[in-house]
Amino acid sequence: MKKGMTVIELLVGIATAAILVSVCAKVLQLGIVTYGFARRQNESLTRTRKAVAGDGSRAGILETSREGYQFASLPVSSVTVLASPTSAAANYYLKNGNLYRTVSGAGSVLADQVNSLSFDYYMSSNGLVSSTTVASSATMVTATVTIGSGTTVEQKVYTLFTGAQLRNHP
Predict the structure, then answer these.
(1) Contacts of 135 (CB under 8 A, 6+ apart)
(2) Is 10 buried (19+), middle (13-18) or exposed (0-12) by CB count in 10 A?
């Protein structure tokens, strides 16, 4: 009996090893794509949450609304808040998938990959809350922000819903 391997056995071994390496490489590649997607999604959600709620020194939509004096206008897709009767208005709006904040003509991007932004305005009178379209009577706002980002692997859409009441309303 001869000891050793035949050419057929060697080729079968190499083919088996190649299949195992190919499967491992595909699993690793999918893991990298999934990690990248999850990281981008998390960053987008974090930026949008900070844009809505604020993050320390930067006031978000809610903090601006809470500290505001009056809503300057009541469009469905943006909010304009006056901090006092003589102050510049802070305007939050959506354009080309970016959430912007503009004060005194200077705009900045607060969040990206935002699919939709809508506001509903309410007033409170004698303990009753009702919707309104009159800027001077609005004392509360609710915001619905839909964020979606993804790759060819998966598309996830998240909706943030929150609200605020004006503290300094006359």
Answers:
(1) 70, 71, 72, 73, 74
(2) exposed
pLDDT tier at 169, thresholds 50, 70, 90: low
Q: Is residue 146 helix, strand or coil?
A: strand
Q: What are 80-101's pLDDT values in tens digits?
A: 888 777 777 888 888 888 888 8
Evaluate whether 61 touches 103 at the Cβ level (below 8 Å): no
Calpha distance 141→122 (Å, rounded): 6
Query: In Å, how far from its chain's centre is CA 99?
Result: 9
* Average pLDDT, integer, range 142-148: 79
pTM, entire model: 0.64
CA distance 149 to 4: 56
- Euclidean distance between CA atoms 61 and 120, whole angstroms: 13
